[in-house]
Design goal:
The complex is a heterodimer of chains A (214) and B (79). Chain A is an alpha/beta fold and 214 residues long. Chain A is 18% helix and 27% strand. Chain B has helices spanning 17-28, 51-63, and strands at residues 2-10, 40-46, 73-78. Chain B is elongated, with a radius of gyration of 16 Å. Classes of the chains: A alpha/beta (214), B alpha+beta (79). The A-B interface holds A 59-60, 63, 66-67, 96, 102-103, 105-110, 150-152, 175 and B 13-15, 17-18, 21, 65-67, 69, 71-72.
Amino acid sequence: MSLKVGVTRFLGTNCDQDVRQWFSLNGHKAEYLWFEDQFNSNDYDMLVIPGGFSHGDYLRCGALAARTNVMKSVREFANKGKPILGICNGFQILCEAELLPGALLRNKDLRFIDGWQTLKVENTTNAFSKKMSVGQTIKLPIAHGEGQFYADSETLKKMVDQKQIWLTYENNPNGSMLNISGITNAKHNICGLMPHPERALFDWMGSSDGGFFL
Amino acid sequence: MMTVGIKIMPRDVILDSQGRAIEESMKNNGFKFEGLRAGKFLEVSFSNENKEDVKTEIEKMLKIGGLYNPLIEKFEIIF
């Protein structure tokens, strides 16, 4: 089934074209959504908040983007239980908007890190892991300076109980609690992850495991 | 014109890796102290000089505007 997908664009978003192409390759129609404008949540089946350095990463990563007009519509879309995927900076934006629990802090060694990571699939209860199975490992690239997932112990416990841990790192590169790489909200319709599935679509890219998401 | 400072610091439970790195560098240079944490400081100017009004507005900026993230940060308003 061909889906209509909205892809948000903030000042400094830089993975928007890759994401759009990823959906086009899978036969879906992706449209850009400008940060200053609201949209009709009935017009889309799925939303993606791609990575980048929205609004210069100023104040805190994702903090300024989380308070823009487009996010008012994203919130409405989320409340309808429709699927949203936040990748890298998109994950940070969803946490800042409190649509996902926790926060993403500076990497534990303070450095921007990039490279391939092996991830373990912990849960497959969301729209972006229909082709995954629990316990499976996938290979995806990361590229971030602020990817250390933090939540207080009470929140973490709740997340584990509600099966909100989606993906974990095999070799935790940034100090994330419980090796967390990707999570979902309690209703499992909103998902966020630090690695970039849109950068791993064909073997010549280094991995084609981005294919497991759609 | 009234200029107000907002000090934003990582909460005590947060591992402040920036502060740690600065602390380590200082200690490697022979300075002796017990601890160092790094945060940020904002200055906001208002034409309204009524302290109560300004305080209310800053609190709104912090809590509704998202100037700080209560999960990981604490703040202090400095007049």
